[in-house]
Task: inverse folding
């Protein structure tokens, strides 16, 4: 990971800070399995630097931006980089305080606390992701206000208070720019440093294809253009973000590599991710423009 980050241009001072952080904070071996395994690396030097610096300074971060800008990928990459166990909490309108902190449960005729993800992350020095935090009701989140600010405590009525482990950090994600998103209340935003997530740069996308596929130079250009064109259409609200799926695109490329035709592969990984026929047509049009009729599978891969 260090090598990758250096090749991205991430400052060595920050990476030394990461090493110190890892050295300083013990890990409970029982939770090692929660350190995510990374299949896809996050690309974007500036964002990496902001996120690493914020974590080193003891801050929580809010990743905000359009869908498919790699917010979850970055959150997992961060837990992996800092070697901390990760808890991801998907928030929605029905999320309540007990789904974060925990709830009463019976064990051997005794009432005990069944620890929720925030509680466990607080104890174990984990990173906890509040995924799509703006989907939750403010009341659900007000219980973690004291957890997220300088007090760094969890108050559980009946169980006393827990001071956060030094290594604990919270990473919230928030999508904006599509219907159904709510704004986040100020009290909450003030407890995070905000990282505005950029869309992936063309040069980074090319690097990503180079490192994750055996496409040839020309094909890398085509697939890069495909992703960027679809992304632009999504940002302009011509289509939803369902087809803006880099993982799906990489899977399509793998299918082609295995022997499935170009168009069938793209249907599986991209086109049919959206269930709206009008949207599918737009996506298919973009594909037709970039992949000329007589292009063959074999033309795409390194010989
Ligand atoms: N900068 C980036 N680096 C790596 N992958 C990215 C980047 N931007 C987008 N992606 C890809 O976009 C897709 C969506 O990523 P995800 O983390 O789920 O986005 P979000 O949570 O922002 O909606 C994934 O396939 C991811 O690999
Ligand atoms: Mg997400």
Result:
């Amino acid at each position: 990971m260090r090598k990758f980050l250096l090749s991205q241009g991430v400052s060595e001072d920050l990476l030394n800070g990461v090493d110190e952080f890892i050295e300083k904070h013990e890990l409970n071996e029982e939770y090692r399995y929660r350190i995510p395994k990374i299949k896809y690396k996050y690309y974007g030097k500036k964002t990496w630097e902001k996120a690493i610096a914020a974590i080193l300074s003891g801050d929580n971060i809010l990743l905000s931006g359009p869908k498919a800008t790699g917010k979850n990928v970055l959150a997992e990459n961060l837990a992996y980089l800092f070697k901390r166990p990760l808890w991801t909490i998907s928030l929605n309108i029905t999320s309540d305080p007990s789904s974060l902190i925990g709830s009463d449960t019976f064990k051997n005729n005794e009432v005990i606390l069944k620890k929720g993800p925030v509680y466990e992350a607080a104890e174990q020095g984990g990173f906890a992701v509040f995924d799509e935090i703006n989907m939750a009701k403010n009341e659900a989140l007000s219980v973690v206000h004291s957890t997220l600010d300088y007090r760094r405590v969890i108050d559980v009525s009946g169980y006393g208070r827990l001071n956060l482990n030094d290594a604990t950090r919270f990473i919230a994600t928030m999508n904006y720019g599509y219907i159904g998103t709510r704004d986040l209340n100020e009290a909450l935003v003030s407890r995070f440093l905000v990282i505005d997530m950029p869309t992936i740069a063309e040069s980074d996308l090319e690097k990503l294809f180079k490192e994750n596929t055996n496409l040839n130079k020309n094909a890398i250009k085509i697939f890069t253009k495909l992703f960027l064109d679809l992304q632009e259409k999504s940002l302009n609200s011509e289509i939803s973000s369902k087809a803006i799926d880099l993982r799906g695109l990489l899977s399509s490329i793998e299918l082609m590599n295995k022997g499935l035709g170009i168009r069938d592969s793209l249907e599986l990984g991209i086109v049919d991710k959206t269930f709206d026929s009008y949207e599918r047509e737009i996506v298919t049009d973009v594909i037709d423009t970039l992949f000329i009729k007589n292009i063959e599978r074999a033309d795409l891969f390194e010989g």
